[in-house]
Write a structure and sequence with these properties.
Radius of gyration: 16 Å
Helix content: 55-70%
Oligomer: single chain
Largest sheet: 2 strands, antiparallel
Distance between the termini: 27 Å
Shape: globular
Order of helices and strands: HHHHEEHEEH
């Protein structure tokens, strides 16, 4: 996992983050379009999320990130109280990051519902980024469970990283035999 500094170096300003998010979303949708329902909804192993569950997780994380960006803007404008302290992230015994319970997919969504959710969440995120404008790189900050204290721009950078990470993960899983 990259550091917060590496995220800044890799994704830069909001405009660059949005370009990365646009490309990764297009690639993610193309990948989903290429999958049969059987592949989309099948877990490769009992403890490994299906591609559909990964999509739901991506939407949950992006929705949460958008809300954090909005709250940071409101705190900066004096319209909201700062966040309470956040809990640190947890890792599995093999070192992989563990999604917080609220970011775990619940399942049960159809292909259409997943795609609609991804679109709705993305449109909200784009609105939050546009409304935050020049406030994005400025304090206040909120602690990410794995990256530490981040500005709204830092949260946007993590979203760009997160979607690309899961896209690459899905590509690898789907290209592996078995």
């Amino acid at each position: 996992m990259p550091s917060a500094q590496e995220l800044t170096s890799r994704f830069g300003d909001a405009e660059n983050c949005l370009r990365h998010l646009g490309r990764s979303r297009q690639e993610l949708l193309q990948l989903v379009d290429s999958l049969t329902d059987e592949l989309l909804f099948r877990r490769p192993e009992p403890e490994v999320w299906s591609p559909a569950e990964v999509l739901e997780h991506v939407a949950l994380v992006e929705e949460s990130g958008g809300k954090i960006i909005r709250r940071l803007r409101k705190v900066a404008l004096g319209e909201a109280e700062p966040f309470p302290p956040s809990l640190p992230g947890q890792t599995r015994s093999d070192g992989r990051l563990l999604a917080p319970p609220q970011m775990e997919p619940k399942g049960g969504l159809t292909r259409t519902q997943l795609l609609e959710r991804l679109e709705t969440v993305r449109q909200r995120l784009l609105l939050e980024v546009a409304e935050s404008g020049e406030c994005l790189p400025l304090p206040p900050t909120y602690a990410h469970p794995f990256f530490g204290e981040l500005t709204a721009l830092g949260w946007l950078q993590t979203l760009a990283y997160h979607e690309r990470h899961h896209l690459n993960q899905l590509r690898h899983r789907l290209s592996s035999p078995g």
